[in-house]
Backbone:
């Protein structure tokens, strides 16, 4: 048996088809979900892909967070549905308050596209269990608004609870506080990060690394073994 | 142009003596008289608006047409060509049922006026051309030229242009995989912002811009029509910017990539359901262009009710609506029974779509406003039968002196120390330095099919996940060479792009070009143009790569000073399996470095002559297209059969530039030996064409040498991949750290 993993397409989503491919390559079944449709089609997990949903108008993720599909995603994420937010998806998750903090414009004010080194800080979430804690990986990063911020209290709490899932290594590409690249909720079912694991799943494509594939094999194993 | 009563066709016929502002709209007196002759009366204001934009240099190619014909006349037989010059973009068969469409266009003048929006809408426009052919856009490339790197205005223009290209392309989800950035004082005030795009479709999905079938509906969809870019098409190609005339509205259009992304998705969905008979994007000249081109390419006429056009600004006059260049709009011709479904798809994507007219069985384009007929023309006279100029041209007097000023006679380095200093000076010069600061502002990864992206020799995209079929694209152009000899310069641009595609393992198939020149009213510029077109057409014929389309940008000139003639050439190639692609980076220590081709003392127009002596003179490198073809065949075979692990074409900066780039990208150094019969200086800096360096695994050396020997391509062993320095034995050694610093810090220091 396999798992059905939904990928939401918002107007302006860009990496929805890439994410579907990554899910397929990991051995799971990708299911296309539409932003105007509340129905999650019985999927076992959901990915909110990267892009510029609604043109990033107002604030990145601010409008998408109110789309019909998100009503169901928010409701079910609170009761354990695994949700991964990549880049714009991470921004949507913070706007939806499924994850704490917010994303500001990069501190250098430019879009940045690079192969980014990360450290996996938490290998126990639904989406990271195929990594080892402390593992160093390279994942492409590409964004305009990637500077993670939260108040000191929240940051301390995230650190204390082991909820910083990924940290930038060697170079902080956007001024994110405490080099945070990705975080998880308390239950470990909701994870958001700025880098794009779906762009690191094939040896020939992009940077030529497959360091992103474990995101998708992690969730598949969890769902199949559940 | 407000007036009472409405200037209808009837009114125009009844008031022959009314003076219209044809000169203000950029028309010449004889052009206006010709319009009157065509119509048999004075034009209405709306008709005048249409003719003026469609007969502008930008839309009508009136100065260049007589020369461009050669691309058709000399076109080589090519089985790969599915759609040639004249459509929105050419289409090439790449096998396995796939077709690829690609094109390069200029957005030079708007990008000088307003760098961000000018560059952004340049990307938007070329992408709509690709969609209009029925293809999904899969990548963009951006060949750019700016004034001197340290000129203060470059710091205004370049960051805006780069942010605009990124802001638009990144938001559309198109990987930016290639292009160039060149600095030269000649582009001060006239930066060149060329934009290219590639799209992929199945053969059966090719769509054309024509309106046929009486009764079919004309649907305008996308953004509402506003007051931006009115008259832009005329201004684009008219003589000057320094018109003191007040303008109520910006001449440069404003882009909304989000709207364009929706337009892409909804258009492709309509194509998939086979709802579209004909399609045209709205770019320069907006509705004037779309309606007249659709109608004149089709079998019938067209009737349009302008009142139905959704407006952003309800005060727009009909003339302004016709001329508006508001972005993110397209026009489709749809059979009546399919209109509802088409509108449904647009609604799904929140795209505004409105039926604004229909195809008629007549042969007139008729446009109505408030019940009155304000346009009644033969659409061919607007779209295709504009004026054609045989502009006088003459080889400039200074050309001989320029060519006599031989770069080969410039003082050369006299010691190893001087040679080493000049290497560092070269690789850190703005033109030769790493452009990472620029390209890292573009998304290379989106769509998950990018096999190679800049700074590779060509960008490469996988188009079939099962078979690994892929396409490669490279754009090149060297204005310095073209200034010395425009005929050879255009051929060298083609040769370089062709070589770059082959260096990555792909087979060159077809060409698109963007021809950037000064004022066609200057006979010297016109001579440069004529020579460049002749050179390119001849070379395409010889290499068997047809020109599928392109763009001409004239009037890149401030006062008497024209830019260097700058033909930018894009070559598209195909590779059966992207797993066989060859990267630039050195892969493994111990691999043997071979120089392919002949090296002569050729320094005219070279990067060395510019960087070390600030000199431009002499002759550009010799062109040998048969050699280029042979070199390409060897590079492709070697890649396919696994005989080489990296390859890099040699062009500006010569061999040392290529070695340094391959070393830095691979993080592996090289030990070089000056081969017998060479002097170190020529070996390092000559820019002889038809050359590449390759890294050959030792196990493949015999096989590779045998292949080159059998086919008659000179292959000279010049060293080995090794260590963390670039060393020229007996001369100098430079650490990768030192080289990286020199190569990578220049651009951020100037522009960040």
Residues:
């Amino acid at each position: 048996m396999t798992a059905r993993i939904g990928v939401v397409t918002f107007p302006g989503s860009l990496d929805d088809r890439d994410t579907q491919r990554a899910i397929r390559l990991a051995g799971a079944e990708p299911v296309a979900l539409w932003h105007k449709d509340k129905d999650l089609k019985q999927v076992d997990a959901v990915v909110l892909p990267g892009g510029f949903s609604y043109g990033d108008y107002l604030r990145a993720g601010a409008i998408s967070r109110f789309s019909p599909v998100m009503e169901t995603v928010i409701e079910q994420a609170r009761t354990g549905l695994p949700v991964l937010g990549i880049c714009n998806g991470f921004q949507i998750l913070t706007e939806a308050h499924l994850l704490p903090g917010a994303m500001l414009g990069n501190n250098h004010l430019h879009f940045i596209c690079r192969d980014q080194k990360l450290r996996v800080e938490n290998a126990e979430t639904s989406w990271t269990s195929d990594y080892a804690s402390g593992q160093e990986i390279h994942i492409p990063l590409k964004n305009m608004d990637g500077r993670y911020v939260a108040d000191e209290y929240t940051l301390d709490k995230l650190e204390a609870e082991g909820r910083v899932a990924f940290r930038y290594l060697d170079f902080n590409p956007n001024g994110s506080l405490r080099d945070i690249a990705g975080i998880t909720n308390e239950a470990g079912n909701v994870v958001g990060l700025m880098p794009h694991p779906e762009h690191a799943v094939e040896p020939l494509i992009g940077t030529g690394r497959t360091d992103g594939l474990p995101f998708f094999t992690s969730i598949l194993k969890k769902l199949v073994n559940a | 142009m407000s007036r009472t009563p409405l200037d209808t066709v009837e009114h125009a016929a009844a008031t022959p003596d009314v003076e219209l502002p044809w000169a203000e709209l950029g028309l010449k007196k004889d052009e206006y008289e010709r319009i009157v002759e065509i119509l048999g009366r004075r034009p209405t204001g709306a008709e005048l608006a249409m003719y003026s934009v469609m007969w502008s240099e930008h839309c009508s190619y009136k100065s260049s047409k007589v020369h461009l014909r050669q691309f058709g006349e000399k076109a080589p037989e090519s089985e790969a060509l599915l759609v040639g010059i004249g459509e929105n973009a050419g289409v090439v068969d790449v096998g396995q049922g796939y077709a690829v469409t690609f094109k390069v266009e200029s957005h030079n003048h708007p990008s000088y006026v307003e760098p961000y929006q000018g560059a952004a809408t340049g990307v938007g426009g070329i992408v709509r051309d690709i969609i209009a052919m029925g293809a999904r856009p899969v990548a963009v490339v951006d060949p750019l030229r700016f004034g001197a790197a340290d000129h203060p205005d470059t710091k205004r223009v370049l960051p805006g242009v780069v942010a605009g290209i990124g802001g638009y392309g990144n938001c559309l989800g198109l990987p930016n995989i290639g292009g160039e950035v060149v600095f030269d004082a000649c582009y001060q005030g006239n930066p060149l912002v060329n934009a290219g795009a590639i799209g992929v479709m199945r053969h059966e999905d090719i769509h054309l811009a024509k309106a046929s079938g009486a009764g079919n509906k004309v649907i305008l969809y996308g953004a509402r029509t506003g007051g931006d870019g009115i008259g832009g098409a005329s201004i684009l190609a008219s003589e000057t910017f320094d018109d003191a005339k007040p303008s109520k509205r910006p001449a440069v259009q404003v882009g909304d990539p989000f709207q364009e992304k929706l337009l892409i998705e909804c258009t492709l969905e309509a194509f998939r359901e086979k709802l579209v008979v004909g399609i045209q994007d709205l770019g320069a000249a907006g509705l004037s262009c779309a309606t007249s081109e659709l109608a004149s390419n089709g079998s019938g006429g067209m009737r349009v009710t302008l009142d139905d056009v959704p407006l952003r600004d309800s005060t727009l006059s009909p003339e302004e609506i016709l001329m508006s260049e508001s972005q993110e709009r397209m026009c489709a011709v749809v059979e009546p029974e399919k209109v509802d479904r088409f509108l449904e798809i647009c609604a799904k994507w929140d795209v505004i779509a409105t039926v604004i007219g229909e195809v008629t069985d007549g042969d007139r384009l008729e446009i109505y406003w408030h019940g009155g007929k304000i346009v009644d023309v033969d659409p061919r006279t607007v779209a295709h039968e504009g004026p054609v100029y045989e502009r006088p041209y003459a080889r400039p007097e200074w050309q001989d002196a320029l060519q006599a000023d031989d770069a080969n006679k410039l003082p050369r380095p006299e010691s190893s120390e001087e040679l080493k200093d000049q290497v560092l000076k070269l690789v850190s010069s703005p033109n030769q330095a790493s452009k990472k600061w620029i390209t890292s502002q573009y998304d290379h990864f989106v769509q998950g099919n990018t096999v190679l992206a800049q700074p590779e020799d060509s960008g490469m995209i996988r188009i079939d996940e099962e078979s690994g079929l892929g396409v490669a694209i490279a754009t090149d152009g060297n204005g310095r060479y073209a200034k010395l000899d425009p005929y050879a310069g255009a051929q060298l641009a083609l040769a370089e792009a062709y070589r770059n595609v082959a260096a990555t393992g792909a087979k060159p198939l077809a060409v698109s070009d963007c021809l950037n020149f000064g004022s066609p009213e200057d006979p010297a510029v016109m001579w440069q143009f004529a020579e460049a077109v002749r050179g390119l057409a001849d070379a395409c014929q010889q290499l068997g790569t047809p020109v599928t389309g392109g763009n001409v940008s004239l009037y890149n000139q401030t006062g008497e000073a024209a830019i260097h003639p700058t033909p930018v050439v894009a070559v598209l190639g195909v590779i059966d399996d992207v797993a066989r692609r060859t990267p630039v980076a050195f892969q493994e220590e111990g691999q043997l470095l071979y120089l392919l081709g002949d090296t002569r003392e050729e320094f005219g127009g070279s990067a060395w002559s510019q960087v070390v002596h600030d000199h431009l003179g002499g002759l550009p490198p010799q062109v040998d297209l048969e050699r280029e073809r042979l070199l390409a065949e060897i590079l492709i075979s070697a890649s396919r059969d696994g005989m080489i692990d990296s390859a890099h074409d040699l062009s500006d900066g010569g061999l040392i530039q290529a070695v340094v780039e391959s070393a830095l990208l691979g993080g592996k150094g090289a030990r070089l030996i000056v081969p017998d019969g060479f002097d170190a200086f020529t070996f390092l800096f000559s820019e002889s064409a038809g050359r590449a360096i390759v890294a050959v695994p030792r196990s493949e050396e015999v096989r590779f040498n045998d292949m080159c020997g059998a086919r008659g391509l000179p292959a000279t062993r010049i060293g080995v991949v090794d260590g963390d320095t670039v060393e020229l034995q007996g001369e100098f050694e430079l650490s990768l750290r030192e080289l990286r610093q020199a190569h990578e810090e220049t651009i951020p220091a100037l522009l960040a």
